[in-house]
Amino acid sequence: MPQEQDYIFRYKINPPEEENLRNPLLELMRAELASLGDLLILFYKEEEVKVDGFRLLNEREVIHELYLPKKEAEEGRVPENIHQQQEQWALPTPQLIENARFYEPRIEHIKKVLEKILAVVDLEVEGKPVKIDGFRLKNLSHWLGPSSGDPAEVFDHLATRCDCACAFCYLKGHPPTLSLKQPARSAEEEYAEALTRVKYFYPERRRALFPTLGSPYEILAHPYALDLLRELRKKTDRPLRLSTNGHSLTPKVIEELSALQPIYLYLSLHSSSEERRKLIMGAKKAEIAIQALPLLKESRISYAVVIVPWPLPSLTEMLADLQETIIYANAHEAHLIEVSLPGYSKYFPEPPLFSRDELWKKIVETVRSLRPKVSTPIIVKPSMFEEHLGPEMLNLPWVAGIVQNSPAYRGGLRSGDFLVAINGLPMSNRPQARDLLKLYHQQHSSKIVTTIKRIGEKKDIQIDPHDWDYPYHPALDHHLGIIFPGAGFRLSALEDLKSLIISHKAHKVLFLSSTLVKPYFIENLKQIALPKEIEIQVIVPPNRFFGGNIFMGDLLVVDDFIEAIKEYLQRETAPDLIVLPSTPFSLGDWRRDLTGRVYKEIERAVGIPVVLLDCEVIYD
Length: 620
What we know:
globular; TIM Barrel; Pdz3 Domain
């Protein structure tokens, strides 16, 4: 497709509301101040300033409330006829403000201010008033933001289609107020936007256009997927990491993907049985993905096999199929096998479907029984669940598996080993081990000596980073082929917590954690020296927003935190400071949750200072 001009990013604005006409000038100023309050924090002489109202210079006696109670229509609810509306709009289709709220909230700020301005003035062209119902971005180079340099930031925008109907698909349990939506557009229009994104994608400078992603589907189902990947390969040699259900992995497609190396596939196989793939995935051509594994090996495309062990039609049949699928993936030299423990929200059809803990324990038992029998590493996600089952390995540099033919594999490391030291440098936790391995990998070291503990005995193993073969590839692996169960808990986060508490002069602190992370946090909290007058209490908010059997901290939203804090305040005295982990607000750069709301709303709701503790996702 010729791409002579940049794709136009358009946004709709709403006509003035009758209720705002009572004092539209006041509402204009309130909207701009409140919107800015969601984008920045005010300081005076390096001290944060809390603002909840304003006074007009011509109204000395009146203080106006800054943050009014939200109406339902302002909380991310999409009109039921949105797709019908979009069909009436001229191309290019307007972008969804719900996605802008999450990734580039300054666009929503512009929308709010424009709507309030248009409530009090008419715009003119050559002396005649004109009606305004939208706006477009001008110079796109002004809208570049931080980027990891990962090509997925571009090609994921074509993951707008899906050619299967998985029984466990998380989109079946989507809450209606999630920010991320998919606008209805033609494949040609989506490709036009993606090509503009390629133009403004600067991986070396780590700059790119802000995302407009909705919930991701299947990239290879898009008719222009391979065309876009070829355009990206002209711009960067970084690995292309694609998630796919395998329905498109015909011999021809695999051949074309092979020409784009380095490339890595996360293949959602779920089962090596055609009958079962049809049952749990609605796969019409179930054999294509199964037959793709030997073809991927032949083309030397590294891939991970992803399995969601959904207990259908029965637990016994699912566990038997899980074993067969793992053995099949191992036979065709999968780089990694990832077993994602299943869950469902309260919006899922007909909950409850199964007992989470009982099912998860059965799955972990099956995985542990298979690890000694296969060469391919098997990890469970979330990995912390397995770690809590014992034996004692919380945050320890425990090896979950070794990639076949990797330097670590050829050197003699095995699943179950514990790393003690690398080139004589001792380590006590998993982040230390990962950081050291990555450092030596980046330095292209000639030899690395790892000291391990295996069945209680210490042993030195020499690794040659240059001794490797498929499915390992140094562009895809950062730890010489060593697979850990997760990234681990960084103790530096606790030092950062200490600094936050001291800088806020707090004595009583409330920290909100999650079911899986709380034991890590409490155990490691003992290792930092806090002043005696500082008290830290830890609570776990329920995942009320998603409901069902969801209990992951990264899926908590603003309302979950507000409700948990208010319940705490009913039984305890108020803390001086509330600390939240940053991960529920880290998918975008603007500290928004999955509904597009900023964490500062929690502070406004409970009247207590709230800060985020920057921390990494514990599993990757």
